[in-house]
C-alpha cells in the first residue's frame, strides 16, 4: 500500500497558473525546517514566473520580446532559458521549438519557453527539498513529477493518468528518484503544436517520459507528442530516458527499457 | 496548516459548484470560479476512529457552501456537504446529482494505491476535479 508507517504531509499552491503540490515523508513534518524549505520552493517558483511568464506584460521575457530589454540587462534567468530553448530545439531535432508557438494572446507566433521553464524551474527549486536530510519528497507541477525516496522509505507510486479518462489510472510506476513527465491532450485539448506546420499535433493522445531530470523528461515528452509515434526510434536513442506513448487510436507503445508492466 | 485546510475546503466547494455550473449550462467551467471564504476556519472533531474536518461556510456566487471531510489513517473516508445552494428547484435538482458524484470521486481516488499522478498538464481550474487534488487532500494539514 502507498500509505506507510512514515508520516506524510502535503502542501499545495497555485504557481505559474498550475497547481504545484509537495508531499514530504519524514518524522518532523510539522517543524519549522520542513515548512521553511517548502515555502522556499514556492517563493522561488513565483520569482521565476515574475521573470519568465509570457502571460505577464511586466515579465523580463515579455519586455525582451517587445524589444524593450536586452538579455544582458535582464535577470540572468532570461539568458539561461533562451540558451536552453536553443538546446531543446537541437536535442529534439526541431520538434520542441519555443520560437514557433502561438502567443497566449491573439496575434502571430511568439517566443514561448513555458514548456521548458516549468520543468527547469521545478527541478531548480527542488534543491531546497534535497537539503532535507533523510526526508522523502514528491513534487508535482500540473502533472509533471519529480521524486526522491531515501533509504528506508518506500518508492513513490506515480500513477499515469488514462488519456481518455483523467479520472482513471493507466499504469503505475514505482520511482525512487527522478522525473516522470507527461504531455498530452486530456485536459486542454489539442494544445501541443507541431512546430513545422504550426498546427495542433493530433497523432498521440499522451506521451510519458521518465528519466533523471524533469527539464529534459518534459521537453522530450512534449517533442514526442508533437512528432507522433514516429518519435519512437528517437526516444529509444535517448540515454537514461524511457518513454510510453499512446497513439490516437489508443495503442500503447514504449521504449524497450520501459519498466514493465 | 489552517490556511492549507481552508484552501482544501474552498477547493472542494468550488468543485461542487463547477459540477453545478457544467450540469446547468453544458459549457466548460469558467476560469477562476472564485469563491470568497468568509468564516473563521475549519473545525476538527474526532468521531468513530476518523477525524472530521468541517470547513468554514464559503460564500460563492451560487450561494453558501460548506464541506466536511472525515480522514481516517491519512485517507478520506467520507465527504459531506452540510451546506449547499438550494434556493430553487434547479439547485436542488443539480445537487441531487453533483453531491453524490463528488463524494464518489473523492473516495475512488483514495483506493488507487498511488501517491501522485502524472498526466497532461493540469491547469489550476482543472485541478479541482483531478485525482491529484484528492491525493493531496488526504495529506493536507
Automatic annotation (TrEMBL), chain B:
Where do the FMN-binding domain residues begin and end?
60-138
SMART domains listed in its UniProt record = FMN_bind
Q: Which GO molecular function entries does the Swiss-Prot or TrEMBL record give?
A: FMN binding
Report the GO terms under cellular component. Answer: membrane
Pfam families in alphabetical order = FMN_bind (PF04205)
Top-level taxon of origin? Bacteria
Name of the protein in question = FMN-binding protein
Its source organism is Actinoplanes nipponensis
Amino acid at each position: 500500500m502507498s500509505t506507510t508507517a512514515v508520516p506524510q504531509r502535503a502542501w499545495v499552491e497555485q504557481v505559474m497558473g498550475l497547481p504545484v503540490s509537495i508531499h514530504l515523508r519524514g518524522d518532523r513534518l510539522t517543524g519549522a525546517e520542513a515548512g521553511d524549505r517548502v515555502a522556499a520552493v514556492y517563493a522561488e517558483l513565483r520569482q521565476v514566473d515574475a521573470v519568465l511568464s509570457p502571460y505577464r506584460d511586466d515579465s523580463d521575457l515579455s519586455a525582451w520580446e517587445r524589444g524593450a530589454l536586452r538579455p544582458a540587462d535582464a535577470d540572468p534567468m532570461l539568458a539561461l532559458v533562451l540558451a536552453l530553448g536553443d538546446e531543446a530545439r537541437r536535442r529534439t531535432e526541431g520538434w520542441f521549438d519555443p520560437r514557433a508557438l502561438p502567443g497566449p494572446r491573439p496575434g502571430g507566433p511568439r517566443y514561448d519557453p513555458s514548456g521548458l521553464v516549468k520543468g527547469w524551474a521545478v527541478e531548480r527549486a527542488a534543491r531546497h527539498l534535497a537539503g532535507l536530510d533523510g526526508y522523502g519528497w514528491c513534487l508535482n507541477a500540473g502533472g509533471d513529477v519529480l521524486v526522491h525516496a531515501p533509504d528506508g522509505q518506500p518508492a513513490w507510486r506515480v500513477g499515469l493518468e488514462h488519456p481518455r479518462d483523467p479520472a482513471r489510472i493507466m499504469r503505475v510506476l514505482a520511482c525512487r528518484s527522478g522525473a516522470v513527465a507527461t504531455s498530452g491532450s486530456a485536459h486542454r485539448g489539442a494544445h501541443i503544436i507541431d512546430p513545422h506546420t504550426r498546427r495542433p499535433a493530433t497523432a498521440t493522445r499522451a506521451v510519458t517520459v521518465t528519466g533523471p531530470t524533469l527539464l529534459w523528461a518534459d521537453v522530450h515528452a512534449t517533442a514526442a507528442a508533437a512528432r507522433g509515434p514516429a518519435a519512437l526510434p528517437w526516444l529509444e536513442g535517448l540515454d537514461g530516458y524511457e518513454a510510453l506513448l499512446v497513439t490516437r487510436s489508443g495503442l500503447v507503445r514504449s521504449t524497450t527499457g520501459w519498466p514493465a508492466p | 496548516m489552517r490556511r492549507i485546510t481552508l484552501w482544501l475546503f474552498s477547493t472542494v466547494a468550488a468543485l461542487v459548484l463547477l459540477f453545478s455550473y457544467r450540469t446547468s449550462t453544458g459549457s466548460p467551467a469558467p476560469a477562476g470560479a472564485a469563491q470568497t471564504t468568509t468564516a473563521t476556519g475549519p473545525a476538527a472533531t474526532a468521531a468513530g476512529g476518523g477525524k472530521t474536518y468541517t470547513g468554514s461556510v464559503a460564500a460563492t456566487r451560487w450561494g453558501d457552501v460548506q464541506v466536511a471531510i472525515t480522514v481516517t489513517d491519512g485517507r478520506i473516508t467520507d465527504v459531506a456537504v452540510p451546506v449547499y445552494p438550494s434556493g430553487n428547484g434547479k439547485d436542488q435538482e443539480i445537487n441531487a446529482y453533483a453531491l453524490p458524484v463528488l463524494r464518489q470521486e473523492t473516495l475512488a481516488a483514495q483506493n488507487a494505491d498511488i501517491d501522485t499522478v502524472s498526466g497532461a498538464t493540469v491547469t489550476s481550474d482543472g485541478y479541482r476535479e483531478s485525482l491529484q487534488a484528492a491525493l493531496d487532500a488526504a495529506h493536507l494539514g
